[in-house]
């Protein structure tokens, strides 16, 4: 369950020209100056569908011979019923572009460019030989980013649910994610929806953070960032409880992801929203850490999902802690005194 009810003044400023003009509901104007991130649509070839999301569809395509993913937002007549829904999609597009186009890090999916609305965006049919390309409504906008071939981290973990991951792989993936989040936080950006479904793996299994639709520049005053934003299961207690929050909500979500990466399973699979919220906020519910989990890794999880945000480590500290964990001996999956009885060791990958 994904929630995105917004915040107060923690949003990217939306007044003025370019991206901001869309949020005001004024539509696309030919008088708006071209932004540095606007793509040349003549170079964009959109092909097959990869995924469907809340605000549009993700396609695979080519941009100037580069393999790309194209996230198409559509708030035109087809499928968008109300002005409020259209405004929400405009806002999501503008926020995503405003945050993403400034980022440059090996663990963040590379932003290529975006289009603010065009009638020349063509979608290929499944039959590659067909000349009948469909044309999106003139109000459609798109965000173009690098194509990451390995799919989502969530799907990778699902595929390895039975055999689990080798410990060195767990640490490598966790380090990639922690370094990417550390970079975002150094730029004062709060992702606000850190989950394995929003992480991609390339062909070399390098993790890249994606989906900045609800990301925000961190407000100087935590009181200015409120709202139940994120995905159930990963949301920090203060977010679930509607309290002010800051970048430490991402740290909490990272702790949940770290447990998921280690155990290759979903946390809280059978809890309803009401039960989950009450248990996390008032009863300090957290995923159960398997006893075969190395104490150093378990300690990082617990520190990250501490109920008190100020006690959670910064992501740079998490990176240092992960780098300090010994992985050269095949993983150190089990404390030596538990080697004969740990039920999960035999299932751990090579």
Task: Briefly characterize the structure.
By secondary structure, the chain is an alpha+beta fold.
Structure description:
- The structure is a single chain.
- The longest helix is centred in the middle third of the chain and has 20 residues, at 167-186.
- This protein has a 5-stranded antiparallel beta sheet, covered by helices on one side. Strands 1-13 form a two-stranded antiparallel ribbon. It has a two-stranded antiparallel ribbon with strand order 6-7.
- It has 2 domains: 2-146, Phosphorylase Kinase, domain 1 (2-Layer Sandwich), CATH 3.30.200; 153-347, Transferase(Phosphotransferase) domain 1 (Transferase(Phosphotransferase), domain 1, Orthogonal Bundle).
- The radius of gyration is 21 Å and the shape is globular.
- Strand 3 and strand 4 (66-73) form a beta hairpin.
- Helix 6 (248-263) packs antiparallel against helix 8.
- The protein has helices spanning 19-23, 83-100, 153-159, 167-186, 237-240, 248-263, 273-282, 295-304, 315-323, and strands at 2-4, 44-52, 56-63, 66-73, 111-115, 122-123, 134-135, 141-146, 189-190, 199-201, 207-209, 216-217, 229-231.
- The protein has 350 residues and is α+β, with helices and mostly antiparallel strands.
